[in-house]
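Suppose you are handed a protein chain with no further information: no name, no annotation, nothing but its sequence. What can you learn? This example shows the usual starting point.
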Amino acid sequence: MLRVARTYVASDEAAQDVVQDTWVAVMRGLERFEGRCSVKTWLYRILINRAKSSGVGERRVVPVSAVTDDGPTVAPERFRADSATRRPRHWLDPPRPWQRDPQAQMIGAELVERLHAAIGTLPDLQRRVVVLRDVEGVSAAETAELLGLTAGNQRMLLHRGRAKLRQSLEDYLSEEAAR
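A reasonable first move is to predict its three-dimensional structure. Written in structure tokens, the prediction is:
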């Protein structure tokens, strides 16, 4: 809940306050829960509403890049071109598998730290979708409902966010290999 709240507010302390407010609201409203959605969805809806309302002075503008097509998510030169259509078809330079060798285990904690830092650099809406889907395990339908997105927008934001995270980790692993 803290991770989701943190995507809406400016500080960890504000996120903690939002989570506390959410639990108070859940306890007060439990008898009014009608069961029209899962308890998890109901809880996250309360959390998101509390987080949005707590940021009165922290209004954020969603960057246009978060909702517009800003080009391919993976560099086209990483794919083989189909001779008939001239469009990418198969990986020319596929993502390297992350194998569990001793060196990979040594940098594991740092890799997780880098991943969290990379998540923090995503545009707000992409970050919210990635956190809900990949960190919290919320379903695609629930994520779209919670954030007021269409299913297609939710998929696009998740895809773009994951692609940026993958590229960030690949860049980091390439730097480590070069050392």
